Fold:
Amino acid sequence: MLGTGLLQGLAVTARNFLGSFYDRRRFVTTQYPEQRTALPEAYRNFPFLVCESADDPMGTLRCVACQICEKECPPQCIYIEKSKDKKPDANGKPQIYPAVFDIDTAVCMSCQICVEVCPFDAIKMDQVFELAATDRFGALLMDRHALAKPNSYFQSIHPTEAGEVDSRLLAARLAAEEKARTAAAAKAAPKPAAPKPPAAPSAEAPKPSPPLA
Amino acid sequence: METTEQIRERILASLPGAQVSLVTNPGLAAQHSLLLGAAHALQAALLLRDDAALRLDFCSNVTGVDWPEREVSEADPTAPGGKVKRVVPGFLEVVYHLYSVALGHGPLVVRMRTANRSDQVTLPSLTPVWRSCEFQEREVFDLFGVVFAGHPDLRRILMWDEFKDHPMRKDYVEPDDFEWEPTPHGDVLERARRHYPAPARPAKEPAP
Amino acid sequence: MNPSGLPPLASLPGPQIRAVHDELHGDLLELSMGPHHPSTHGVFRMVVTLDGETVVKLKPVFGYLHRNHEKIAEGASYLGSMPYTDRLDYLCSMTNNWSYALAVERLAGQAVSERAEYVRVILAELTRLLNHTCLAGFLLQDGGASGTPLMYAFREREKILDLFESLSGSRMMCNYQRFGGCRADPSPAWLDSARALVDGYGRFLDEYEALLTGNEILMARTQGIGRLSPQLAVSAGVTGPMLRAAGVGYDIRKVDGYGFYPRFTFRVPIGADGDTYDRYMVRILEMRESIGILRQALRDIPAGPILDPKAKQRGLRPKAGEVYSRIEGPKGEIGFFLISDGGPNPYRYRVRPPSLINLTILEDMCLGQSIADSVVILGSVDIVLGEVDR
Structure:
């Protein structure tokens, strides 16, 4: 009969309308900004630079200004200038650091390729999305001071990924220390290598991550 | 589907005198192609479409490739061990990927080449054979500058009508309109230096 | 183009509507719909010549969103082009990614792990659900049902986008596929929520169909409107649901059997009349088949690595050669043609855009229909201008 399809459709809309008063499944609106949904852990927005300590972010940047991300960035939004001098990194090894590290977030397309190509786990994706600004080059062009965030912040936004990164870095650091100790022992004692005592947890070995700034 | 070589034989059997040669693809995919001479391309395309064993009724993809003039060095035939440099003249190429919906096979890759890149750039349009070439040949005309004789409506499609150059050609020069950006690289950096001779980028970094 | 021999419309100053006098048709009206008309799905323009309300000529005008994606990709590394493919058809970034990754894998001879193949199928079918759901909403919106069907569609689409976001980090610009696998491994919890979504989707489709499929107004607006013959559809290179609605059972998932599709049982719905209603109905039926594929894939997905860590991503230099590779995207055949000269970036990079090629026969479908129907017909073609203009 003509009109049954219409009536059937109206029944659906009526069910949805009435259902929205008691059924969460039918009432899905979130009243942003008063209400907020939880961001998934994988959510990515713009990159930030990981530093070890919140107290001295410029001194403890993991970035060694190798410029791989600058070359690989598809929209070319990263600009790096290497430092002339070297600073010790987390392992005490002197490293070049970025004298200038700019990311133009107006150009960045949040593709995460810089994170994937970084061999030092120095650049990661942030989750701050409320970045509206009135000045194109003021707030949207982020320099290294604006980009640097401590490792504890990284752990708070991407706990799974940060856990993997930390254990990987810890393993690398222990291996480096092991190697340095063996080399030092070999230098100090030219006699045939005796079985070494198990490595005691040294003072500069795994530091707990610094508190969030 | 028959091999590309067999299809070539089939075309030559029906169209004696047609220029059809095999272009081998050295890549892993090994999608070899047939290079059709412009004179018989339309008849050959009709044959490919209507032949009972081929029935390539679906022209999926049409695109252009720009091959500018380049210098190759190859073994000298007169002096063993020697090398001679030879200039390969540039040309424009149009590539068609044909499939058969009726028989479910494909692709057959068909190519056509222009004589040069400047004044002899006319090729026969295959739109009368496959309607799907209509917009795609317009795009090749727009971006590469191949003129398709017999196309029903050959106008620019993506660029605007007054636009002069063909942007997909390898020697295309971008117009020198410049917008300052803070993270320039490569060509953009060069251009930034030309437009802003003093500091290419203002120092924003505060003293630590 | 112009019966009166007047200069083309675009070059005339002043208002965009003017009457053209023609002895045969009386007064014809040339009307420029778009590029800002809300029913054209983006910045798309149709120059329509009208005899009364009947379309006698229709010329689509493109290029408002042209950014020469292909030229950009020819200057970028193979990996660097992957995020740009998200922005072609921005509703279906997962299938764009897959098609591009498949082309590069065939060019470079890269094998894909079994788990990644399953994940790709799952994501491609979720993308199909997402795209067809949106299409049904947009189509009804174009037909004048403002709001309700589109909002219901978007409510469901949001659930799929949430899945994409929790897996890839982004709702629409997923940038998820890599050469030889996928970027992130879906967790068991993710697979469970995908299963829950798939289980609930059939119920949503039932409700959606109760709202629409039997609706007399929808039938009156779409049945017999914008007929497309199978011969013309094949010749014009129409692919995807539009081709199948015209009665041609050509599905690249079946024909080429790429990925792991031969492992799944599914049917290919085919239309009988090739009209707008068939194009709507074929998409609804395809969604039901996609649910079936998703159930099988989510049941059978094996454990294992998602991406071989040795598979080269950065600095990939495939051997010189060329490849054309295609998959069945939600809108039709999305293919990539790559020529490598052995260098770090492709010598030639070409996208076969299904949206653009499906528009070839827009004029044929609209001729003789009324101007209001041409909007519905365009809606049933299912275009995204990011892909049309590239």
